[in-house]
């Protein structure tokens, strides 16, 4: 018969072993984790606002509730243009925004949303995943304690809404246009005055006369914001923003604290959101554009060639200057240019003649 003291010692030993095993596991894996996501979007904004909400839901679903993400619309946690600082500084674990807002911190950052006359959404994703773009993006944001991932796409933008028709470069001079990213500098060099407004302030800014023109996103988002109620003149193509990649900003401290399976879930959810959002954008933009023209009387026009030609020239100058800003910018621009040239070979050989043939 086993003595009671031996039984107690065995039981104690079993409990100690179990405790040791539990302590060996990451504490974060044993309970429910909640992240806070700051965004640059009004709540429910078609396109990026919906992407932010859907991304949070996907992470919660795929992790079976082990990791949940609480979404804060622009202004609820921090202002729209302070999302990067919130994630970097620790007041948010995650952000959903666009890299074009961070040119003042890192000159090359806007490239990871779009570059004027640059890569289309599919070409951009190919550069990130196959051409070394993601590694450069990681390197650019790492000093700020942030890991970036593409997480949504609104597709190609339009050139924007204008109070008056565009005929020549003279119509650009003195024009106050809401625009962000590298495209803003192109418009400035053509004689316009760029104005930075968060997405939620574009409609009231246009209505109040703060701006005479506004480039926001693409038809689906523009229709939801109501810009068609302020002017009829809508121009394409979106030469300054041919891609609409959204970004998930993830605090490295928060990401590294996750077990490997949750890291994989966050990464996969971001990739999934990019695919879903882009498919949704292509469909919704076509539907919205048709509604604008047929129901709301919007006049759909093409930016006159003299303006496009001037914009192309300024765009090339701007990219060259960007490459000279610092070593990391030079490497990002060089990598992007290689991707663009490689894409152009394929586009000229196949896509361009196909679209011409399709009519």
Instruction: Give the termini separation.
Output: 92 Å
What are the low-pLDDT stretches, counting only 5+ consecutive residues below 50? 1-29
Reported CATH architecture of the domain at 27-155 and 243-282: 3-Layer(aba) Sandwich
- CATH-defined superfamily of the domain at 27-155 and 243-282: Bacterial extracellular solute-binding protein, family 7
Determine the strand fraction and express it as a percent band.
5-15%
Give a written overview of the molecule.
By secondary structure, the protein is α/β, with parallel strands linked by helices. It has a domain at 27-155 and 243-282: Bacterial extracellular solute-binding protein, family 7 (D-Maltodextrin-Binding Protein, domain 2, 3-Layer(aba) Sandwich). It has helices at residues 4-24, 27-30, 48-62, 83-89, 121-130, 133-141, 182-189, 202-207, 219-225, 252-256, 260-296, 305-323, 327-358; strands at residues 33-39, 67-72, 94-97, 146-153, 160-162, 176-178, 193-195, 213-214, 233-236, 245-251, 299-302. The strands form two sheets. The protein has a six-stranded mixed sheet with strand order 7-6-8-5-9-11. α3 runs antiparallel to α11 (260-296). The chain starts with a helix and ends with a helix.
Question: Which key terms come to mind for this protein?
Answer:
359 residues, alpha/beta, D-Maltodextrin-Binding Protein, domain 2, six-stranded mixed β-sheet, 11 strands, 14% strand, globular, disordered N terminus
């Amino acid at each position: 018969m086993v003595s009671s003291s031996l039984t107690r010692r065995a039981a104690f030993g079993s409990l100690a072993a179990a405790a040791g095993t539990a302590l060996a596991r990451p504490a974060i894996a044993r309970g429910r984790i909640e992240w806070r996501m700051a965004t640059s979007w009004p709540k429910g904004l078609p396109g990026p606002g919906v992407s932010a909400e859907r991304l949070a839901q996907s992470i919660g679903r795929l992790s079976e509730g082990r990791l949940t993400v609480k979404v804060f619309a622009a202004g609820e946690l921090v202002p729209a243009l302070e999302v990067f600082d919130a994630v970097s500084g620790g007041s948010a674990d995650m952000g959903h925004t666009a890299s074009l807002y961070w040119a003042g911190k890192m000159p090359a950052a806007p490239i990871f949303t779009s570059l004027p006359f640059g890569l289309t959404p599919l070409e951009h994703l190919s550069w990130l995943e196959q051409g070394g773009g993601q590694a450069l993006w990681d390197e650019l944001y790492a000093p700020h304690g942030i890991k970036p991932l593409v997480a949504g796409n609104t597709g190609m933008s339009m050139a924007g809404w204008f109070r008056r028709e565009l005929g020549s470069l003279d119509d650009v001079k003195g024009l106050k246009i809401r625009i962000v990213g590298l495209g803003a500098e192109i418009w400035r060099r053509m004689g316009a005055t760029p104005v930075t407004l968060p997405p939620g302030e574009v409609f009231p800014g246009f209505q109040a006369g703060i701006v005479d023109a506004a480039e926001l996103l693409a038809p689906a988002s523009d229709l939801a914001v109501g810009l068609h109620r302020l002017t009829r003149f809508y121009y394409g193509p979106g030469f300054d923003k041919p891609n609409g990649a959204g970004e998930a900003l993830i605090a490295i401290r928060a990401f590294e604290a996750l077990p490997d399976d949750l890291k994989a879930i966050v990464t996969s959810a971001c990739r999934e959101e990019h695919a879903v959002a882009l498919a949704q954008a292509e469909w919704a933009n076509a539907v919205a554009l048709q509604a604008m023209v047929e129901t709301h009387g919007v006049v759909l026009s093409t930016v006159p060639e003299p303006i496009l030609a001037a914009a192309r020239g300024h765009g090339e100058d701007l990219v060259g200057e960007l490459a000279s800003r610092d070593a990391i910018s030079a490497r990002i621009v060089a990598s992007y240019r290689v991707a663009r040239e490689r894409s152009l070979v394929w586009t000229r050989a196949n896509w361009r003649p196909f679209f011409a043939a399709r009519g």
